């Protein structure tokens, strides 16, 4: 009888704790909202090169026609190439990518605040 009572009280306590954790995590998630990053914008009428120039010093993902993806900070944009520094997962490497090989650019447009 004591054992059954302990099992029931343990189950009730577990349900109570899970409910409390769920309510607290939901409340904290609702207090945060996505806000726009001020300088983030793409212009569809501009070339890849012109769009990349707007992201100098910022973190971007660059997708190549080959399917390979690079993530890093845009250091410089030239006539034919873009220089990415501090590559994600390769802290001591940079990349020089031909602009004509780029198929897409991703950048962070919203942030949680």
- Kindly estimate the percentage of residues that lie in beta strands according to DSSP: 25-35%
CATH top level of the largest domain?
A: Mainly Beta
- Average pLDDT for all residues: 84
CATH topology of the largest domain: SH3 type barrels
Q: Would you tell me the structural class of the helices and strands?
A: alpha+beta
Biggest sheet, open or closed, and with what strands and sense?
5 strands, antiparallel
| Largest sheet strand order | 5-4-3-2-6
Unreliable sequence segments? none
Domain count: the total is 2
Number of E-state strands: 7
Number of helices: 2
> Gap between N and C termini, in Å?
52 Å
Which radius of gyration do the C-alpha atoms yield?
Answer: 24 Å
Shape: elongated
CATH architecture of the largest domain: Roll
Q: Helical percent range?
A: 25-40%
Which properties best describe this structure?
alpha+beta; SH3 type barrels; 2 helices; elongated; 2 domains; two-stranded antiparallel ribbon; five-stranded antiparallel beta sheet
Quick take:
This protein is α+β, with helices and mostly antiparallel strands and 113 residues long.
Polypeptide structure, described:
With 113 residues, the protein is an alpha+beta fold. It is built from 2 helices and 7 strands; from the N terminus they run H-E-H-E-E-E-E-E-E. The strands form 2 sheets. The protein has a 5-stranded antiparallel beta sheet. The N and C termini lie far apart (52 Å). 6% of the residues are buried. The mean pLDDT is 84.
